[in-house]
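User: Can you fold this complex?
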Amino acid sequence: MARKRSPATPPVPTPRDAEAALQRGDFVKAVEIAKALTNLTPTDESHAHYVKVLAAAFEGYTRLGKVKSVVETLKAAEELANRQPVVAEAVAVLHAKAGEFGKALALAATPRVHRHVADLCVRRNQADGAPAEVLAGWSVVQTAFRQYEAGQDDAAKETLQGIGLTSPFLEWKLFLRGLSAFATNDTARAVENWQRLSAEYLPAKLAAAPRGTIDPAFLASQIPETAVNLRRQAETLASGDLLGGLRAIQKFVGRDQRLQPVWKEVEKVAPKLRTAHPKLFVKLGTVLYEAIIRQGEPTDLKKYRTIFPPPADDPHFHRLEAMACEGSQVLDMAVEHWQKYEAWLAGNPAGWPADLATRARALILHRIGDILEDAGLPAQMPKEFQQVFRSLFDTPPPAKPKGNPDDFYRRSAALAPDWPTPAYDLFDRQVESKAPAAAERTAREFLARRPQDLPMLERLGKFFRGQHRMAESLDVFKQALATNPLDAKLRDNVGLASIATIRRNLIDGDLAACERLVAEAEEIAAKVFPAAFGSLKVTVARKAGRNDDAAEIESRLYADRLRAACVAFDLSVDGLLAKLKPAQRKAADARLKEALANPAPHPSEVYYLYGSWGMYKGEGLTYRGQPTHEKKIVALAENALKSTEGTDVDFESMVVALFQHRQHKAMLKILPKLTPRFPAAPFFPLFEAKTLYHEGRGYGIEYQMARLLDEAKRRAEASSVPRHRMLLEGIDQVRRSLNLPGGVFSSPLFGGDDDEDF
Amino acid sequence: MTDPYTVLGIPPDADDAAIRAQYLQLTREFPPEEHPEKSAAIRHAYDLLKDLDARVNYRLFAAARSETIDAIIEDVVCQTPRRRITLNELFRAAGISGR
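Assistant: Here's the predicted assembly.
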């Protein structure tokens, strides 16, 4: 026989359920639970709880303005009080709060109830229906408040003597005495009075905000939310509407949103601020000036002009408009406004001493140059792009600013001859735009004023080298090195320029010049480029018929095993360029042929060899067999994989040499073999990703790069080698940009400019 | 960002030498090991004003940023003298209806 299932017992409610219902604003449920609890266990405790819940419901309904519910709650409370006299006073308090003084006092005419009656009289500012005990104090308190508000503190104090210890207005007496002390900066007395207030009555609630400003312990005892609220109340009390208005402005300023709604508040606040705090009014103007630059629209400036006077530094708002236009990429307008601002500064405005104004003009002209330079990439946006732009933004694409950056850099440099930046920028632009004569003139004029300016000397030295004007390059680099003799890069450049100059003279047949230059360059060039310089020494000696000297130097050069192939290469090519007799070149040619056929060269041999080949190319020299040499060197790089020698650093150098000569195809054969060969080195997967970008095309390339970059990152993170760790930042940057369409391609890691950093 | 002229206590027309002298004086008064925050603020202010280029750059492009609405609110609170608060204002501020 199946057992009969007992019916499910409903869960017994607890006081906590009633609290939870109150918390969520379900007063009906809360009252229901509390009432049920009194029925289940009719104790004093449960009745007290029921009254507490009724009081909370009463407060809640009053707040919400639900009159009917307030009445019903009071009725329930009254019924309870009739049955349970123990809760009569608590219920009487509710009636007092509701203004039913008669019922309240009939239930319990206690001092507590009287005080609540008194509170309601003050709150309503009338005492109709109040009992005689209350009426007596009511007029006293009214008078005392009037006196206090009129600044008659002594009179108010005197009046308050009429409130005795048993008066229902005792709390109000303490409150007013504290308020009076607060207004006269008697903080200690204010705190002393307010500390005696009972939290149950209204005066304690009213005193809380000002008390919070002078009684840190009181503020600290509040829950954070209340403390914030009290601080806000105190701010409002301290400065009336002014602070509220400023807070409203605060919500808009410095955020990524339109400024339009802020002006209503500004219009209200500004006159008050100008009267009460003239200096802060000016500051508010500055804040909104800056806000317009960052968040503004043209209408905002119109509003601003109606409220604030123009700033002394920008009376026509050209600077504001220029910066705002820059921010919104309306560059043609930005340039126009900057020009107007510069013209204003040129008119010797007040507050701008001549030196400051001139430098400011130079800075602005330079800035215009930069804007034009940045905007100057495509001469005109292609037609199809213009259509796409129109369809996306429903507006024509922004107009390209008009003007030549060179003109602005030049004017800037002329205004501030001691400021190098515009001269550098002008020079760089002239070099890029293939105006060598103008570039040289810029540098020469600048160096005439600042002959020891290293950045410009380096620029000019490299410029001459690029022009294959080796002797001039050497002179400039020597000048730079004289300024800073310990600069290793400058020493390299002097060595490089010396070698190139000697070689030019060798080709030209000026043996005397070669001998002189070799002697001069010995100290630097022999150290930084031993093979190239040694080879030239050998060739010059041979040309001069000093064969024994040549043989002696040659044998010393070949003693460096890793540079031997490179020495053979230099000797062979220099011999050819110097038109040595075939017999004089024969030995070097043979050694070179043998080196280029090496089935397993050391990676450093390849690195030095390719470096030498690149040196001729960099000097603008060509010779028969040059392309073949390069092919063979690249093939050697692949052969180097068969070598059992060479560290990861040696292979890294070789890979960098290949990359510099754009040998991407060879790199894509070599790198996948080096990655497993050196399992801890992050460089190889990173460079494979880099090479893939340069060489690879087609769908999926980003995924391959992402995989390689992940591997590079894993290795860099696991490594304790500083140069591995240094790669991390670059790897992370590219990894992040991979998530963006085309992001990886615009990353500096792939841009080419930063290649030297690897 | 606080106004660097105020931080260093120098007039707006101070020259390189005056700014440097004041900076060194303040650095002696507020050594970094004893006043890390103050000395960092002094250093930052000095960087903004140390030479003509820096001063012009600051005046043209950054001076406006030295003012913030937060600082204005703070100043209003500090500069407003304690005043006689009326009962009605207290009721309003506390959000208690009735008067």
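Chain B has a mean pLDDT of 89. The interface with chain A takes residues 13, 52-53, 55-57, 59-61, 63-65, 67-73, 75-77, 79-80, 82-87, 89-91, 93-94, 96, 98-99 of chain B (CB under 8 Å).
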